[in-house]
Protein 1
Amino acid sequence: MGNPSWFKNVIIYHILIDRFAGFKSTYNWDKPIFLGGNIKGIIDKLPYLINLGINTLWISPFYQTTAYHGYHITDFFKVDPHFGKEDDLKEIIKECHKQGLRIIADFVPNHCSKNHPFFINAQTNKNSQYRPWFYFTKWPNEYLSFLSVKEIPKINLNNKEAKEHIINAAKYWLSLGLDGFRLDHVIGPPHSFWNQFRKQIKNQYPNVVLIGEVWMMGIKRHELKTINIKNRFGKWLLGSSSDSLFKEYIGELDGVLDFKFQELIKKHIIQSNLSKNVFNKYLKRHYTNFPQEYFLPNFLDNHDTDRFLFLCKNNKEKLKEAATIQFMQNQPSIIYYGTESGLTQTKSIWSTSTYGDLQARQPMNWNKKNEDLIKFYKKIIEEKKNTT
């Protein structure tokens, strides 16, 4: 039902809207505040992206939110004013399509902000129609959330009304012309939700792509109660990026982000724990676990992990070696904004217990771009296009 074959070998550019373009200043970038990056800023930089050679954009959540990164949603049907207006979203979709680019967006079905009006109503009114939309363990202040983050309560997607609300929001944004979604925290909602989600979406939009973030990094044992996967304890023991976890979504999603590739490339290039032959053997074995039509988009880094360049101590030759291997695979390839221009960080995201991820979300280095690295990325992008 609906196979978006156009996605097979795309080159994706992953953008965190607030940190990419449109901000007037980078002051206080290391604080969890809105810097001012916006959709218009991305539109202004489309010539740069087209010149780079990418053919698909992936933008972070643009929905009304309480947080600069967009994952704490207060209205699933509105564009947050920090990022622009709905007309700006329509414009970037139109401009991308005019230039031959596809555009996908993050979609976040599992949770919302505790400041979402539905949750506020559920928490303040014992008889609220929205109370069953959430998992209160002891009303009003104890409830399941995204892992242990009380700021973002978990939505009960077994509830018919809640499920319809979320699926209708997804359909609304696709109606404006988006080419698909990167689906956040896929292991949170139940499989029954994903089956219904896929069925409804593909019935109306058969060619959109649905790619899941299926990852268990950093999850603690007591947080498994917020997860809906088969044999969750066993998979948790297997580690953050097991093939058995990825396989669970065959037939429900079009594919999943390939955290296994990222894990293997780090062991090969950065830690030197895997020789070239062993790396290739592990990678081949990994790919044989999945049907050809199941996409495994690969990446070196993203907004939740340390930048690859930082991990290899800013050795650009190692980054080039890793990117060359990445782009040789018969899968979609993702560039996290700034990786192609030498954007790095000064300390690990894991070095502090609060807001360490800001290190990997630094503002795009427009004034300090590494032109040699950009030239290299243009070359491997062109080579990938010519061989697929």
Protein 2
Amino acid sequence: MFPTTACGFWITGITAPQPKPQPPPHVKRQKSRKNLYGRVQINDIQKLFSLGTPDVDEAQQVLQKKINEAWDDHLDERDCVTFSQQFTKVYPRRWAGLKTAKWHQDMHNAVVARRGDFYLDEVSEDWCWDYIAERRTTGSRSSRVNAKQVSDGTINKEFAFVKRVMLTVDEAKVKMPPKKQIDQKGAATYPVIKIKRKRSDETVTNFLRDEAEAMELINAMVPHARPIAMTLLMTGLRKENVMTLDIKQNLRWNERKIIVRQKGDTDHVIGMSDDLYYLLREVCGERTSGPVFIFGINGCDCFNCSPINKKTGKPNKLHKTGRIKSIKRTFDTARNHIGRPELRIHDLRHTLGTWMNARGKDINLIEEVLGHADITSTQRYLHVGVDRGREALNETFRFDLSAPRE
């Protein structure tokens, strides 16, 4: 017997009809149309077209293919933009208000001076290697001692700046190279390479041996430059930070500390030693604002500081006032005077790190004083020195090999 209900009979073996599959987003059914329709929107443009099939799975595959084709067509229609055009566009709203604004301008000018303006979608690994070859053959760093080839570190900085500008581009509107490389965070980025430097290339070996050599170097400089060199040596700050020190903005007399804006656009705080505190107090005198280092400080009467020409007794046309912008000429004279023509102003920073390490200071303390973001950067400055190593070996071995043999 078939089962019955109050409303009628149930027929076993027959199931109710299944509901029609619902289309996914962007796939639509049109009235009185058998085939499904797809919708593609790129920016403000929207397109609706037949997918040629009533099957939902097939329609999805066709839609994805149509999306890829529409995107490729859109990319081909994008405008090309040059490095200078993008920098000029983004500089006012991103970098002009930073303390590193001048650095951004200098980096842009440096890249364009070496390579000329170029389209950003042309940047590739081959483009980078051509740039490297050109910089290594034609680029050099001026020096009174000898012309030095541009370093790989300098090229890496220029590449990093090019990538910084590229990352400000809206890819939906501007043609750009495909992102292939993986950055430190695991995200795809533009194919701008970075030259891997050997450990020997990264290690810096120039530093002053002791306080006596340091004072010999400083005393050989003109008087207005001596406080600057002393500050560089006693703080380990970079040259641009020291040359632009401002009394009101950077010096905290009560707390005896200096606050500067360093690389990476971060604040770095360093304490004033007693010697540095009294030195800067004497340099600033009764001034409470303005540049710390100005022409005429320290009783200097050199040809830049003296308003009267010593030879003619007439007004000095070379007389300068205000902030001191460079001490390169007097530093070059002083380093040649002490027989160390290879020294650079930046080596005063290296000297501080080396001396602190040689006198047993903890590497983390040295990292904090020098303001490094990574401990590996600090290790570059930790030189014991050949002379100190020789002294240690002499203390270890006491063989009397200089005595004549019988």
Protein 3
Amino acid sequence: MNQLVVVSFDHIDAARDALRSLRELEQKGQMSFEDTAIVSRDPDGTTRVTNEASGTTETAAVIGGLVGAFAAFVFPVVGIAIGAAAGAAIGASMGTGVEGTFVDEVKANLTPGRSALFLVTRSVNADALTAALRPFEGEVVQTTLAPDLEAALAEALR
């Protein structure tokens, strides 16, 4: 089951650095991401949202590519457009990412000079997650983790 973890950080670059640490855990097989995003608010108040290619996007692209290749074989010129449309429709129907309205809500509440990290995980080693985020100062915005795991994460970020 996918888990949602949203953490805000006291420094603008902290979310990016934390995600880098978490990607190392992913490479070691200790967690797997479905979707990730970073929201930051510059000191002048400008907000930035950085989305990474997610598992859903990758799956939709592969399926869209296969549909497009088949359609291109049958209808050469139209095949590419059909494949792209199929990939987009599949990705949208899978709906496993973070809701845009929730991202907007966090973005609106983020003060200048801070950042937030959105994680949708397929699997997570809670101890490894907590250890990876311990060097960063921040606070838990929302999670779907068990209450004791959420409390441990909140404590690690203090």
